[in-house]
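Weekly modeling sync, notes
Attendees: AB, CL, MP (scribe)

Item 1: holo prediction request
CL wants a bound-state model with inosine 5'-triphosphate before deciding which constructs to order. AB pointed out that an apo prediction alone won't tell us much about the pocket. Agreed to run with the ligand included and paste results into these notes for async review.

Input as submitted:
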Amino acid sequence: MKKIVFATNNSHKLEELRKLTEGKIEILSLKDINCDDDIPETADTLEGNALIKARWVKNRYGYDCFADDTGLEVEVLNGAPGVYSARYAGDGHDSHANMKLLLSNMTDKDNRKARFRTVVALIEGDDERLFEGIVNGLITYEPKGTSGFGYDPIFQPEGHDVTFAEMNAEDKNSISHRGRAVAKLIDYFSL
Ligand code: ITT
């Protein structure tokens, strides 16, 4: 089976990726290659950060790999928090604080349209490639559900009346931003 490193420090993403690629790709984690670096994400685009993470692993550890950078883009906030989604309420990757701030910035907003966008950067040898996945939806007025991670409790995907956090992992994966980007990656590998 094809084997490749997934450059993430987010255990939830790793778990989703392993489910999405089950039987097709063996995903190695950063732990598996003895990397516990806190990879800096200094770009101002998802594409830029995904490439930084993948290049970090390729250049320092030598493995072919891919990385994912994801942002929640809210229409009425001109695309915020976007590339800054992880640090919206400050450093520390605190999902609860991030959701609370987002909901408070939207209390008087009727336009709840938002989308999750994932960019996957793949590096194989000298070859770099990007794959994008998008899911449109709405920001709810309060958090609902306990599955998933990050902003899942306040994101209701288009065509559904529940949030990502009220769906099981398979249902989220089948329509999510990450699921769509990874489907393109699997397609590219012709698996
Ligand atoms: P790595 O960079 O190590 O992969 P990260 O958690 O820092 O992990 P991002 O830079 O892509 O990941 O941060 C994106 C933010 O958006 C972060 O706060 C996540 O919790 C959130 N996020 C990413 N994917 C999500 C998803 O599928 N559902 C809900 N929130 C998500």
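Recorded for review: The CA atoms of residues 68 and 120 lie 4 Å apart.
Action items: CL to compare against the apo run; MP to circulate these notes.
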